[in-house]
Design goal:
Blueprint (H helix, E strand, L loop, with lengths): L1 E5 L4 H12 L3 E5 L13 H6 L5 E4 L9 H22 L3 E7 L9 H16 L3 E6 L5 H8 L1 E2 L2 E5 L2 E2 L4 H13 L6 E4 L4 E2 H12 L4 E5 L3 H4 L10 E2 L4 H6 L12
Parallel strand pairs: 1-2, 1-3, 3-4, 4-5, 5-9, 7-11, 9-12
Antiparallel strand pairs: 6-7, 8-10
Helix pairs in contact: 1-6, 3-4, 5-7
Length: 255
């Protein structure tokens, strides 16, 4: 099958590209690094690249941009252009990666923007399917590093149920091929607290840090990031992921 992956050079996109090729699929990589700008109004290069493509998978992100309005502008523009190009090229199926809980977190701007990503995909992309996943196992490490200020790091105090990226990639490919043909919600096997994960990661990595809990938007603190009853629960738990990460000399992490 010929599959296009938008965001093919990112964390999920690169792994999805590798898996799809390993299983014999022909992959078209759509990314700035491969010469495509999905924010540009000229869709002809994308339409040409999608010739013969049966499925498009959108795993694009806003990078470091978390502002609600700029994120919404990026998501809506990319999803609209990708969907219109796919329609023009005769693509039959589209898949977009989203986040568990986005429609329940009305007090969190980035999640509201992500809802618009889904909405624009459904409005413009042929055969749209949505995969909502919980945070990746790597999320605690990212929070520790992104919010570090000297010997402290600030982490929102929320319940979460992280999932292995390999499970996300597997399910994205199944959606692209039609092996799964409906919207899906995906989570890992075990509920955790993000502050606890941050402390455990910092200790494991030998970081001399004090983890400071921060108040989260009310919806996230109340569990909006957790999966619903019908969600798939797959893959190894977070502790298994942590055990495979590089370590340093043991260090006390203060909380």
């Amino acid at each position: 099958m010929r599959i296009a992956i938008a965001g093919a050079t990112g964390l999920i996109g690169s792994r999805l590209t590798a898996l799809a090729r390993a299983e014999g699929h022909d992959v078209v990589e759509i990314a700035r690094e491969t010469g495509f700008d999905l924010m540009a109004p000229d869709l002809e290069p994308v339409v040409e690249a999608l010739a013969g493509v049966e499925s498009v998978v959108d795993v694009t992100s806003t990078g470091a941009v978390l502002d609600e309005y700029e994120s919404r502008r990026i998501f809506e523009t990319v999803a609209t252009h990708l969907g219109e190009a796919g329609t023009a090229a005769g693509v039959r199926r589209s898949v977009v990666l989203s986040i568990v809980g986005v429609d329940g977190a009305t007090d969190y701007g980035y999640y509201r923007a992500k809802v618009w990503h889904e909405t624009a995909t459904r409005a413009h992309a042929p055969g749209a399917r949505v995969l909502r996943a919980t945070q990746f196992h790597d999320f605690a490490r990212q929070m520790v590093e992104w919010n570090r200020d000297g010997d402290t790091t600030h982490v929102i105090d929320v319940p979460t149920q992280p999932v292995d990226t390999g499970e996300i990639v597997r399910l994205l490919l199944d959606l692209a091929t039609g092996a799964v043909d409906h919207d899906v919600e995906l989570a890992g096997p075990q509920e955790e607290r993000l502050v606890d994960l941050a402390e455990r990661y910092a200790a494991h990595a030998g970081l001399d840090l004090r983890v400071v809990p921060e108040q989260a938007p009310a919806s996230l603190a109340a569990g909006a990031m957790l999966p619903g009853e019908g969600a798939l629960r797959r893959g190894p738990d977070w502790a298994t992921w942590l055990a495979a990460q590089p370590t340093s000399q043991p260090t006390t992490v203060r909380s």
